[in-house]
Amino acid sequence: MKIYDVTMKIHPEIQVYKNMESKKPIIETVADFDQNDYHETNITMNVHTGTHLDFELHMVKDGKTSSTLDVNKFIREVKVFDLTDVVEEITYEDLKDLDIQKNDFVFFKTQNSFEDTFNLKFVYIRKDAAKYLASLNISGVGVDGLGVERSQQGHPTHLALMEKDIDIIEGLRLKEVKEGLYMMYALALPILDVDACPMSVVLISND
Ligand SMILES: [Zn+2]
C-alpha cells in the first residue's frame, strides 16, 4: 500500500489565480511566547486557495452551496489519467479513447502538476471535453490547475459539469502519481454556505 498526499501546501506565497495579491492567504501570528504562554495564528484565505472543491454558487446565482457537501461522495475509487502530453487544452479528442464510465471519479494529471508558480496558460478542460464528461454522467473530476477552465466566455466548462452535479476538485498535485486506479479520501473543510471548500486529498494504491 502506498499513500500519496495530492494536496497543495498552503503558505503565504502559494500560487494563486492570476497571481493576484488579493488572493494570497494572510497568515499572522496573533499570540506568541514573547507575550503569552501559548502560540496562535490567524489565517485569512479565499476558499479557492490551493486544493479545493467548487460548488455551484461559484458560477450560478443562488446555486448550491457548500452546505450540500456530502462526504460519502469523496471516499471512493478514482481513476487517474496521465495527460502530461497535452498542451494548454484538454479536448474531446484527448478523452474519447480513455476508459471513462458513468459514475467514475476521474483525475487528470497534466503539466500543471510540475509547476509551483501560476501559469497564465495552465492546462484546462475545454468545453467540448467538459460536455463529453457530462454526457457520460461521471460523478466527479479533479484537475491540477487552479481552475477547471480559463479563457472561455461564460464559463461553459464549469456549467456543463455543474448542470449534471459533477463534482469539481481543483488545485491537485499529481506529480508523484502514476496513471491508474486509487482509493481516494478527499475531505473538505466543512465551511457552511460558501462557494468552495479547501480540501485535503489523499490517494492510496495497492502496490
Ligand atoms: Zn475554484
Quick description:
By secondary structure, the protein is mainly beta. It has helices at residues 92-95, 127-135, 156-163; strands at residues 2-5, 26-31, 40-44, 52-54, 75-82, 89-90, 105-109, 124-125, 140-143, 167-170, 180-188, 196-205.
Structure description:
By secondary structure, this protein is mainly β. The protein has one domain (47-205): Putative cyclase (Glucose Oxidase, domain 1). 10% of the residues lie in helices and 30% in strands. It is built from three helices and twelve strands; from the N terminus they run E-E-E-E-E-E-H-E-E-H-E-H-E-E-E. The protein has helices at residues 92-95, 127-135, 156-163; strands spanning 2-5, 26-31, 40-44, 52-54, 75-82, 89-90, 105-109, 124-125, 140-143, 167-170, 180-188, 196-205. The strands form three sheets. A seven-stranded mixed barrel has the order 4-10-9-7-5-11-12. A two-stranded antiparallel ribbon has the order 2-3. Helix 2 (127-135) packs parallel to helix 3. Zinc ion binds next to strand 4.
